[in-house]
Amino acid sequence: MSNSTSYRWMRRCLEWLYDDVSDNDARQMLTNPDLRAARYAEVTPVLQDAGMPVGMLETSEGQSLGVAILALRLRFPRQDGLDRVDLNIAMREGRA
Fold this sequence. Notes:
The chain is mainly alpha-helical. It has one domain (about 10-90). The protein is about 70% helix and about 0% strand. The protein is built from five helices and no strands. The protein has helices at about 10-20, 25-30, 35-50, 60-75, 80-90. The longest helix has 17 residues, at about 35-50. The two termini are about 20 Å apart. The model has no long low-confidence stretch (mean pLDDT about 95).
């Protein structure tokens, strides 16, 4: 992806994981790529509205980001996770 790509959709994805995905489901998504793909497919339209490029989650970068966002969801309380994803977005977009 080019440096001009917006990654702000990552925050929306993490918000969705905190709001709508249980701890158990998030753990299962982390270890089961088919389940992860199916659950992310449910939220893809919302993420695209937030700026995610079409097909992003099918790329190796998108799959890696999907796993990393899940790890934030499982490892940190909501505000800490959101702060961390905001910093990651800023670095990716050259704002940090």
